[in-house]
Amino acid sequence: MSSTIDPALVGTWEIMVPGRRGQSRWIWQIMNDGTYKFHAVPQRSAHPHEGTMIAANGHWTLQARRGLSGYSDGGAYEIRDTLAVITGKLGTGAWKRSAE
User: Fold this and answer.
1) What is the pLDDT of residue 3?
2) Which of 34, 35, 43, 75 has the fewest CB atoms within 10 Å, i.e. is most exposed?
3) Are 81 and 8 a contacting pair, CB within 8 Å?
């Protein structure tokens, strides 16, 4: 798969997500080869998955290949310093660049 990834999105991003059992931390690694990995802490708050991704010109799409096979998502994104404001199936979130 020929992939395009906006260099500004490459890296590890995280967001705190409220849930019934308290907050969880979602972690999204975006690699410059067009792949991604996602997991949450605690793990029960969201299924881990990984796959392929395209992100360019303010629009992104992903397709899970492992973990949530068949899952796809996409939407708009905007980089604001150390924040990536990303809109997808679950709404809009401000992902912070992680130190990980």
Assistant:
1) 58
2) 43
3) no
62: buried, middle or exposed (CB in 10 Å: 19+, 13-18, 0-12)? buried
Q: Which CATH superfamily is domain 7-97 in?
A: Uncharacterised protein PF14869 family, DUF4488 (2.40.128.490)
pLDDT higher than 90, residue 99? no
Distance separating alpha carbons of residues 15 and 74, to the nearest angstrom: 17
pLDDT value at residue 1: 44
In whole angstroms, give the CA distance from residue 32 to residue 36.
9
The two structure tokens encoding residue 1:
């798969």
Question: Residue 55: is it exposed, middle or buried by C-beta count within 10 angstroms (0-12/13-18/19+)?
Answer: buried
**Predicted local confidence at residue 21, as pLDDT:** 83
Residue type present at position 96: K
Query: Which residue type occupies 27?
Result: I
The number of C-alpha atoms within 13 Å of 24 and in the hemisphere containing its C-beta is 14
How many C-beta neighbours within 10 Å does residue 81 have?
A: 7
